[in-house]
Structure formats: C-alpha cells, structure tokens
Write a structure and sequence with these properties.
Layout: H1 4-12, H2 17-58, H3 82-113, H4 118-131, H5 135-150, H6 155-179, H7 183-191, H8 196-224, H9 228-233, H10 251-259, H11 264-294
Helix pairs in contact: 1-2, 2-11, 3-4, 3-6, 3-8, 3-10, 4-6, 5-6, 6-8, 7-8, 8-11, 10-11
Length: 297
C-alpha cells in the first residue's frame, strides 16, 4: 500500500522544509485518526457491557410462557409478565398517539409558516426546557391532571405522562428534519403552481419523514423505559387490564418491583423483563429505520 509519508519525502526532497511539514501533518493525521477510533471503541464498552449482562441474566427464563402468564406472587416461582408487556405497549402507543401529531404539526408551523416569529421562538424555547425536566415531574403533572380528576390510576394517565415526555423530542427532531429538506424542492413546487399547504404535505414532509421517524423512535425508546411517571399514574396490577381506565402493569415498574424483592426467582424475572424491554426497543428502532429508509426520496 502506498505510504503518504514516503510520497511527501520523494516529492519535496528529504531535507526540504515542506517535506518535514507534510510528514508531520501525515503522522499527526494518523495519530488523531487512531485516537478517534480508540475512543469510539471505548465509548462502546459500557453499552456492550450492559447488553452482555442483560442477556446473560435474562436469557435463562426467556420463553413463550412469560408472555402469556401473569406475574408470580412474592416467593412463588413460575409465571410471567404478559400483562406488563401488553401494558407497556398500550401506554407507549397512547403516549405516541397523543404526542406525535401536535409535535409534528408544531414543527411544520415553526419551520414553514412562521420560522422567525415570536411564537416560533417561544415554542422552541419551551420544547428545549421540557427536554430537561425530570420524568418524575411529568408523572406528577399527569397525576394532577388525570388521576386526581378521574379519581383512579389508569393506562390513560400513564399515556398522558409519557406523551409529555415524548412531545419535545419529537418536535425538535421534526424541526431539524424539515430544515434538512433542500429549499430547491420548495422552489420547484412553488414554480409548478403548488400552494404552501401542498408543498409542505406533498414535498417537504415526505422528504423529511425518515428523519422524523428517527426522532419518534428516540422518543419511544425513552418513554418505554420510564418508571417514575407510571408509578404516579398507572400504578401496577397483577392482573390483565380490562379497560384503559384502571391500574395497568408495565415492564419498567415490574422490573423495579421485582428487582427489590429478596426472592431469587423474582430477581431473575426482572432480568428477563429487562431483556424483553431492550429487545422491544431495539426491534422497533431497526424496523422503523428499514421501512422508512426505503421510502426516502
């Protein structure tokens, strides 16, 4: 393979000052490249360690029965967490349905209709503030807004809490996705006689959809693992939920409850639930990326 250091020395001459500078730059470039690669692998060590630990401890109890049976009582063996898995999917789905439409529409407004207006600046500022609010505060808000009003813990209250967590992430990523669409597409659409509404929803939004879905999946991944908001809103249940207006189990709360028990089987069940939660989030992200990357123009 060609050596850039040798080429620089041959081109400038061995004793040329320019050759010395070229050699120094080449060596510095290689050193920094190696440093970046090494730090990249170092940053992956915690992630790989967590995945290995979850797989090692959660795999022994992983079978189909854990998705069809109810959680075991304290000190008992067997059982599963089918109601918790269904409850997690239900509440995350509710939160996504409540958060995604207003977040995307708000992003469209502040990017396409009033990008420099006072309202757009206020929306951006509030969204950035919401991203830094602790999740337990969102749980307290949903408790006051839904649980206190309805008089009961429920999946709906949990969905509202998760929606508050998802909304700023989806809004900010959708804004960046819309800004990433080249202005030439907008100009071409206007040149063909399309209105702003037609341009936004037929040209800009389809072009930004893959990036928007990335933000949606990031929001889903964050919401699926939240525990504190669901403790305040959905509480927990040992049984299958028959409606959205009653206490509902979730994987994150089950992991918290079982991991603090002094029983070996419950701790192992918590590890298995952690593995299922990781797999659920991973499969959702990968599926969304594969589906929407193919639709990218």
């Amino acid at each position: 393979m060609d050596n850039p250091v040798t080429h620089a020395a041959d081109f400038f001459g061995d004793n040329s000052p320019d050759a010395t500078k070229a050699i120094s730059r080449s060596l510095g470039n290689r050193l920094l490249t190696g440093l970046c690669i090494g730090l990249s692998f170092l940053a992956m060590v915690p992630l790989v360690s967590i995945l290995c630990l979850v797989v090692k401890n959660g795999l022994p109890l992983l079978d189909w029965s854990v998705f069809t049976e109810l959680p075991p009582a304290a000190g008992m063996t067997g059982g599963g967490f089918g109601n918790a898995a269904v409850g997690t999917l239900t509440m995350v789905g509710l939160g996504l349905a409540l958060a995604a439409p207003p977040a995307v529409l708000a992003a469209i407004y502040i990017c396409e209709y009033d990008p420099r207006g006072r309202l757009a600046g206020t929306v951006r500022f509030v969204a950035k503030l919401l991203t830094g609010i602790p999740s337990i505060i969102c749980g307290v808000f949903a408790f006051a807004a839904v649980v206190v009003v309805t008089g009961k813990f429920s999946a709906v209250a949990g969905g509202v809490a998760l929606a508050v967590l998802m909304l700023p992430t989806i809004l900010l990523t959708a804004e960046q996705a819309l800004l990433g669409v080249q202005n030439t597409y907008r100009e071409a659409s206007y040149g063909l006689g399309a209105t702003r509404f037609q341009t936004v929803f037929r040209v800009v939004l389809p072009g930004a959809l893959p990036a928007i879905m990335t933000g949606v999946m990031l929001a889903v991944a964050r919401a699926a693992g939240e525990t504190a908001p669901l403790v305040f809103t959905a509480l927990f249940s040992q049984f299958w939920a028959s409606s959205l207006m009653e206490p509902t189990a979730s994987l994150s709360v089950l992991i918290y409850n079982f991991s603090t028990m002094p029983f070996e089987h419950q701790v192992k069940m918590a590890w298995t639930a952690s593995l299922v939660l990781v797999l659920l989030v991973t499969l959702t992200n990968v599926t969304a990326q594969l589906v929407f990357s193919r639709r990218s123009p």
